[in-house]
Structures are given as C-alpha cells and as structure tokens.
Amino acid sequence: MSDVVADFGAVTAAADRIAARALRTPVKQSERLNQALGCQVYLKCENLQRSGSFKFRGACNALLQLSPEQRAQGVVTVSSGNHGAALAAAGQLLGVQVTVGVANNASPVKRSNMLKHGARIIPIEPGMAAREAFLAGQQAQNAIIIPPYDHPDIIAGQGSAALQLLEEYPQLWGVVTPLGGGGLLSGSALVAEHYGAFCYGIEPELASDGKQSLIKGEIQPAMPPTSICDGLLTSLGKHTFAIIKEKVSDILVVSDAQVTAAQELVEATTGMWIEPSSATVIAALQRYPELFCDKSVGVILSGGNAALR
After folding, report:
1. pTM of this prediction?
2. In contact, 134 and 122? CB cutoff 8 Å
3. Of 43, 65, 149, 189, which has the fewest beta carbons less than 10 angstroms from its beta carbon?
4. Mean pLDDT in each 10-residue stretch from start to end of the chain (309 residues)?
C-alpha cells in the first residue's frame, strides 16, 4: 500500500483505478423526502454498491496496489462487517484471500455478508482494544494489514463516492457523510474542498468521539459500543483526523431514536431500507433544520446491510 498522503489528486487517481470494478452508484431524489426535510437532498446510493456499502471503493483501491507476491500471501483486517465484506468481495475479484477479525457480537447480516464473499472470520471481543490487539498479533506474524479506514489508499478510494456525486452535481451547497473511523468523511472533505462545498460528518450521540476530538484538538478514544450504529463505533485515526480537523465544516450528532426514525422515513419515501449508520445523515438533516433548510445537500448513503424488519 502507498504511503503518499491522501489529497484530491489521490482521490481522482483512485476513482480511475477502481472504475472497472466498483459500481457507479446512482444519485436518487425523492420529492416526498425533500418536503419532509425542507431541503433538496441528493442521495448517493452506496447502499447499492458491491458488497452493500461504500467500503468496496477503498478496499478495491488498496488491493489493486499490492504486488502479485502480496496478493498471493493474502491480507488481514478487522471489521464490524462492511469493510470485511468489501475487502473479501474485492479479494474475490483479484484472487486475494481475506481474513477478518470480527467482534463476536457483530450483526448476523454483516457476518453472513462477509462469509458470502469468501472471508475467513476469526472471532474477537467487541471494542477497540480487542481490534488493536488482534492487529498487533497479526503484524507480529508479518501479515499484510488492510486497515478499515486509516490509510491514504483507503481514504482516497472512499472519496471517489463524493467525487462522482459532485461531478454530477457541482452546484451542491454541501456534502454530508456518516463518521466512524473517518475514511469516508476525510475522503469526501478532500473532494468537497476542491468543489467549494461544505462538508459535515454525522455521529451517533452514543459514539461521539469524533466530535470530542474536534473540540479538544486531539483524537479521543472510542466510547463503549452501545449505539445501534454498529459501523460507526471506532475512534478516528491519525490520517483521517489530520484531514477532518483541517477541512470538515463540523461534526454533528444525532440520537439513536432519530436514526431509527430516519431509516423509516427513507423507506417510506424511497423504498430503500438502509442500515442505521447510513441513516445518520438523514437524521441530521431533520435535527438541524437551521443549518440545512432550503439548501441543496448531497448525502452519502453509506450502506444497506441491515436486517429487514
């Protein structure tokens, strides 16, 4: 994997690199949703991406830059589900075996998705400490680690979703994305800055370490994993935080109850059932009308890997 710092040029290069494998997901609008939210919403539907989330972009970008020898060795990661499934799906296309450390309380839907794409799963305890210990043990065995978010290649790949969105709709006032480890938000911020758009990250109140990191000026540890937004329960990384603190307009928080209501609103107005982590962006448009009212806002629907009700 490259050690070059992620920038807008890296995002455009990643978009070109993965174009033959990643889907160009649609941008959808719903007049009913616009009326409910009081703004013009452009939904970049990464819930329709390969493996069901935007994570395929960064995973594919990272694997494409491995040597043939590294691909033959296979790669290792940790994931709550979407990165693991994305890496496994990209690995299937490129002939790379993927091993994933997965919390033993992970979503059954996401666990099944990883297995479906050929991942080898190793159960670990929930929480950041267990994730870090697992990766440290793998590194000691000289494994090739593909991190879920904190690497320039991952950031650049994730930013390609916002790049496509703003290529199609360069007039957007802003871009809004969920925030977990920060790969999607930092990549999107690089693109938004280039287009002169604002960029906001959205977190659950029960996992608002990113907001606290921005306030305190240094990375804060992840909070206990209690939010329903299982894809957003990690702390920021040094690469993602460096971009976020410089280029992101703000980080906003929403409650789990607001997230559930947003899931239902999206289903009622678009027919799509998205995962809680993905619904945070819609919840924020509802919670902060003073910020988003009457604006044209692009939102990244980050994933759709959720059990149907």
Report:
1. 0.94
2. yes
3. 65
4. 75 98 98 98 97 96 97 95 95 97 92 95 92 94 96 97 98 98 98 98 98 98 94 95 97 98 98 97 98 98 83
